[in-house]
Give the backbone structure.
Amino acid sequence: MEEMSFWDHLEALRGVIFRSLGAVIVLAIAFFCFMTNIFDSIILAPCFSDFVLYRSICNLSLYLSSISDYLSILPDFCGDNFHVNLINIQLASQFFIHMSTSFWLAIVFAFPYIIYQLWSFVSPGLYEREKKNARFAFVIGNLMFFIGVAVGYFLVFPLTLRFLADYQVSEIVPNQISLDSYMNNFLMMIFIMGVVFELPLLCWMLSGMGLLTRSFFSKYRRYAIVGLLVLAAVITPSGDPFTLMVVFLPIYMLYEVSAFFVKKDEPETDDIESVYDAESEDWSK
């Protein structure tokens, strides 16, 4: 391959940046045009009692109750009139939320294309083994991020919303939730879950650098369970054990899945020598 000069690399990088920005701008314009439908059917869907998670818990609760009264341990999501009324208290807030939400959605959905553009820029300078590892990281990283976003949207945020929207420190103080507050919590929780689900990829990278081995997960499993329970309690500050476990289990599964991406411990030198001596002794006999 012909060696590229500094200015050739700079020109190639400029092309990557322009193509990435173009993809973000095109998606942002598309999301901006359809933002009203997106808000009504997707973003604000957890504000109503017919949300898919609420109906699923209701159906599961009815099924368990039909088997035995002792299995009726789920929250009562059946027959309720749950509804969150959002208000706007700033003049230009709705317009800026319209713009910013379109932009952030564009970045999220253009992220795989942006990473692919960066990959096309750096891949000519990598060895074949490095290219293979980078492809693996690209696929797993994007897959786990979107799985985390889905868990945040369908599970974590709706349960947190139901608890916080109905919680009152006093009956004299009614809840009036602003659109800004709703969107800040919505985007933050979904983004946090997307980042948390990158844990297996992070462990794989640390293992490749020799900083993490599989014995770490078995050694600190008890401490991890306690820490993840605290994290789940912070994410969903509800006294309901079902809600706590619903949030805890996916995060704990990440901990166990991460162990499979980490290299096994290498046998110590003393162990290798003992095995060698035993084999030598058997051979001499």
